Amino acid sequence: MWRAIDLQGGGGRALVTGNAGDFAVIDSADFALLAANALDETHPRYADLYAKGFVTKPDDSGLRRLEGAITRTRKSFLLDGPSLHIFVVTLRCDHSCQYCQVSRAAVDARGYDMNLADAAAAVDRVFESPAKNLTIEFQGGEPTLRFDLVRQIVAMAEARDIGAQRMMRFTMATTLHHLSDDDLAFCHDHGIHLSTSIDGAAALHNRQRSHPSRQSYERTIEGLARARAVLGHDGVAALPTLTKATLADPHGLIDTYRELGFGALFLRPLSPYGFALKTRRAIGYDMAEFLTFYEKALDRILDLNRQGIAFEETNAAILLRHILTPFHSGYVDLRSPAGAGLGVLVYNYDGKVYPTDEARMAAETGDTRFALGSVHEPLDTLIGSPAMQWLTTGAVAEEQPTCAKCAFVPYCGADPVHHATTQGDPAAEREGSEFCTKHKGLFHILFRHLADGDPETLRTFTAWALRKPRHEVGVPAEFAA
Ligand code: SF4
User: Fold this and answer.
1) Which residue has its alpha carbon closest to ligand 1 atom 1?
2) What is the CATH number of the domain that holds 346?
3) Of 50, 74, 98, which residue is a domain's last?
4) 408 lines ligand 1 (CB under 6 A)
5) Using one digit for the tens of pLDDT, what is the confidence trace for 435-470?
6) Are residues 91 and 68 in the same domain?
7) Which residue pairs from 379-382 have beta carbons closer than 8 angstroms and sit at least 24 positions apart in sequence?
8) Is the pTM of this model over 0.90?
9) How many independent structural domains does the chain possess?
10) Which of 59, 238, 320, 451 would staple 25 via disulfide (CB 3.0–4.6 Å)?
11) Residue 476 pLDDT
């Protein structure tokens, strides 16, 4: 079985994909033959299209078995259960960022910290998951305001892990402002990887990430230097939040990240959750504006790589891993069945459990349909909850009518929380949704590059997909064949 789509800006070429993720870009005359089942064995594209399963012979059982094996590899995350466990240890934060109005509380507010009994119960839930690789991510608010609780959770998880033999990983999203030398030594000793927010150069960052000192950027940069000195250069990652102001200057954002010594930038549009409509009008944008920005930024990053300067765009790297390899990237926000509740669980400061961080934020705005239950309920009960049963109606992309026909479905995912929040139904029509428009746009951009076949771009894409240094990968000649 194959699906096809006209490649936007592709000069009349069509992209054809199979269930297992094989693809071919073919011109309109060849596509007409393929669609009419009239491609004969003497045609120059026949061997390639047959090998990819797009033309068939009476006995193709070997190819079908191969397709099944690749699909099982691609979906192997299904056997794991939740592997990402997000602990919102406090909602308090001393920033008041433009785009974060509902998921923070004032730094001196009471009743917004997780208590120890809830934290211990959340650790129990983590270890009820069968996943071999477990990540505990500390979030807020600003989680370092409760670093004492972070220490206790790490100690509890490590004590549990001694017998369980899991691969444990800890991460923390932090402004880096409040970490003492002792805290950093603890992060080093317990392998806590830090991730911070840097929205661009100082003026933009300070405007968007408002802090009483008016020096949010300077304090984060100072914290970055201290953290790198203890954890190593790669011990801290950074992410920007892209607002309308950022979109005006893609090169400026890339330059800032390079000047700060980062080797990657994750370009994601602003989440539709967590701030009021009025603010969204001031700082938001539509998906077409994001995609125009994205294409310019990606071109700039590809140029850098062409010049021998290794720099990754992480959103592309995730999609390319799905396109160019039989493996899933592990990114829980883009998989089918969806990661919500099945790959990720969020333990809120108040003891409630949510299937994603977006669901938690929706609850903060009064939409409580996504709560799976209390952290004191067993994992099976949470995963079998009415909220999860409702969300699973939109959790499988291949079962959504529009996705089932879409050529990008082998590489895409389902986001039932997004569709429930924005359209009221986890299984709402995908065509025209922000999620779908974004991914279709990104897939068109990436496949256009693959089809154009520039050897240096293909080398960069392959390096990103295989997670290898660029000099270690060859230049594949046949992607577009
Ligand atoms: S969400 Fe959109 S791009 Fe993704 S598979 Fe469905 S229809 Fe295709």
Assistant:
1) 436
2) 3.20.20.70
3) 74
4) yes
5) 999 999 999 999 999 999 999 999 999 999 999 999
6) no
7) 379/81, 379/82, 379/125, 379/128, 379/129, 380/128, 382/125, 382/341, 382/345, 382/353
8) yes
9) 2
10) 451
11) 60
Pairing of strands 209-210, 264-265: unpaired
For the beta carbon of residue 218, count every other beta carbon within 10 angstroms: 14
With a 6 A CB cut-off, is 338 part of the ligand 1 pocket?
no
Residue nearest ligand 1's atom 5 by CA: 409
Q: pLDDT (tens digit, 9 = 90+) per residue, 63-104?
A: 667 777 777 888 888 878 899 999 999 999 998 888 876 678
Residue ending a domain, choose from 383, 406, 438: 383
Ligand 1 test: best mutation among 430, 437, 443, 445, most atoms within 8 Å of CB?
Answer: 430
pLDDT of residue 449: 96
Q: Look-up: residue for tokens 């299937």?
A: 355
Range of the domain at 40: 1-74
Token digits for 56? 């068939």
In-domain check, residue 429: no
Q: How does pLDDT run across 116-155, given as a tens digit for each residue?
A: 999 999 999 999 999 999 999 999 899 999 999 999 999 9
Burial of 163 (0-12, 13-18, 19+ CB in 10 A): exposed
